[in-house]
Amino acid sequence: MSEPLNQETIKNEVTHYTCQKKCYGHVDNAASCCKVGDRDWIIGPIRDAEEFLQRLNEKSEVKYEYNDVFIEHEEGSRLFPNKETWQNPDHYPALRLRMNELDLPCRFLTEKQECGVYEIRPQTCRQYVCEHLGKLLEML
């Protein structure tokens, strides 16, 4: 027997579908908030960095160091000298990116364009809602 539909279940389903199939309102676009690409975008600040690192190390066989997971202002401002958001120290720490990939995804974004640490993700990621998704959720 399936779980009854309630407001939270519907919200979660709309969010998952939108983020996987129509992120930012664009068909066949997924997980844009988890990628820098050519935008002036940063995945930060991560205000619960130490707590996230602890949760990550408790759940993972790999033991991560702080610098494996986060970018601080000094490094980030050098990586992206032409992106204003990366020049502002208030946006740090930011989640580390896979710099060898064109769209510069978060290091935890999977090949399926899903969050590999979804259950323990940082508060910044939990709270983020793009404008497109926000409008959809307001209609529920």
Cα distance, first to last residue?
A: 25 Å
Largest sheet, order of strands side by side? 1-2
Low-confidence segments: none
Specify Rg, calculated over alpha carbons: 16 Å
Query: So what's the overall shape?
Result: globular
Number of domains: 1
| Largest sheet data | 2 strands, antiparallel
- Count helical runs: 7
Mean pLDDT: 91
Q: Considering DSSP H and I runs of 4 or more, what fraction of the residues is helical?
A: 25-40%
Order of helices and strands: HHHEHHEHH
Could you explain the architecture of this structure?
- Helices cover 39% and strands 3% of the residues.
- It has 7 helices and 2 strands; from the N terminus they run H-H-H-E-H-H-E-H-H.
- A two-stranded antiparallel ribbon has the order 1-2.
- The chain is globular.
What is shown here, in short?
This protein is mostly helical and 140 residues long.
Task: Set out the fold topology.
Blueprint (H helix, E strand, L loop, with lengths): L6 H15 L27 H11 L6 H4 E2 L1 H7 L4 H4 L6 E2 L27 H5 L3 H8 L2
Antiparallel strand pairs: 1-2
Characteristic terms for this protein:
single chain, 39% helix, mainly alpha, 7 helices
